[in-house]
Model the fold of this input.
Amino acid sequence: MKSKYLLNRLPLLEEYIGGLQGGESILFITSFENELRPVISAIIENLNENKFSIIYLGYDISFKEKISTFPNSHVIDLSSSKTSSANVISSVKRFFTKHRKKTCLVIDDISPARRLAPNFSGLARTPPDRLTPVRRAGTWSIGSGGSFTPFLKNEKKILSFYSEIIDTVKKKNALLVSTVISSKLSNDSIGVLKDLASITIDTVLQSGTIHGSLLNRKNKY
Done:
């Protein structure tokens, strides 16, 4: 049996999905930019505490600075004009080859190109223990908290990139954590991403709280 990695900083999410195993991927479908900053921050901290090697693809300054201080970790700045899908995939593969055990790729996020959002780094400090139960089956919640991807300029490129990343994660027995903004892609493309990921959670912001509904959970035992 593959090792199960616990999300102890997000206990209700941990209980909801039953932990993560090597080779699995979790996709959060969000409504707005920066919506899941406290969730992603908690997951990153959790990975570091569990001695994971982390490779981060994104634009969030606070995340880039934080992860740069972690041992055996790497940041790919997607705001660089030289960034391409092929270069990113090659870098990810080299990272997974170099760090063979307990590795995770974090993509924040995989939506089509859009303007760079303001840096809401302060929201990353939202205590993850604000995660609270919701009186509705199949949901979890956390106190409310993006980015843009110029090298993925259309849906076809996004789906191709994500599919190859998923295959790489499976082959290397790594983990993948990623986000996508639902309004930036067609329903068909969102459906393809959902089917590719091991775990997909749809989130919605209500009264200052993010609620999440599990859309799929593969290989649950």
Q: What stands out?
A: The radius of gyration is 16 Å. The beta strands are 4-5, 20-21, 25-30, 53-58, 74-77, 103-108, 139-143, 175-181, 199-206, 209-217. Helices lie at 11-17, 37-49, 61-68, 85-98, 155-172, 187-196.
